[in-house]
């Protein structure tokens, strides 16, 4: 029975990855259905994946929490009701019942639970604070909105939990997760590592520099920091430690380098896509604007590694141990460069980011089939889809929670109050206003994901 539930979770993850690919290439067949399916699949995969345990042990030795199964079933019913109501609202005005509102708050509770399990206490605190602020009594620091009105405005609408963050991620971002998973599963990531070591072996502290270069290269095609760490960190961290750096420093270098992938063009983190949607600035312009900050970020990492290497007396990699590139390595590197070129060409041609991601994904899949024999096994394809689906599920969880928080901010007017406070504090000084906003983002970024920090 345990294996049945695991298999169900994997099948749902595959379905989510396939849905993302379909939507990026053929468009949205219905707004309500696409939003409903992506959120439902994301939450279902998230709930079933919790039972794989947090310590990488197999589920064989741990009873499956029936609680999660019940939550998955309940959320399926909630989403069935949500889709039905949203489809009816497209045709005519309907009256939402108190029971429907109760189901909405159950959905909010499940979102809060998954937010806590996947993103920790800080994001949960933000989520709970928003929930209390909008529905709590005024004498206890709330605004006292009617709970039914809150449910109708923030659940059964496109201004709350199912607002723009869900739409942008479901329609644009998820295909890039699949794109990165193809490179990771096929073995293309290992080729990037060889190139990174080849380029940096002559520098003091070479392995640490290689981690930076590899993460920067992978970051050009995947804005997901976690996927970046998984693809490069498992190889680079042990080698960095072996070269003489302390374990903490090795982990810090990889974490910082992988995080930089979120601002590394052309495929940046989810924040860049949200920024394009919120501000109305074309994604290509945001990519161009990020070039200098990204270069400065990675240059600073190089300087830090050089200083630490000199401090600890760590030199370059010995000549006899340096990586040598074979003709086959140059050929296999096409699996990286060709999709990157396709992506840039589509963006320069004025195509949408999702169209560019769709085309690049097809090119990457075809070249990986051609250049990496192991990737021709159907088992590898399923591993790719499952990996992409699980990462996508966590994204859908957080953007649904973020959407709810943003809905609270808009519904209560607290966002305008915050902006007014910044204007009062900074006066007419634009530079000081930017500094205050930057400090706010830094504080938020200490405990919540970048997407949440930007939108909140």
From TrEMBL:
Q: Name one Pfam family in it.
A: DctM
Domain (TRAP C4-dicarboxylate transport system permease DctM subunit): give its ranges.
166-456
The alphabetized UniProt keywords are: Membrane, Transmembrane, Transmembrane helix
Query: Record's InterPro entries?
Result: DctM, TRAP_DctM-Dct_fused
Q: Which residue ranges does UniProt annotate as crossing the membrane?
A: 7-26, 32-51, 63-83, 103-130, 172-198, 210-237, 249-274, 286-309, 330-348, 354-375, 387-410, 430-455
What name has this protein been given in UniProt? TRAP C4-dicarboxylate transport system permease DctM subunit domain-containing protein
Record the organism: marine metagenome
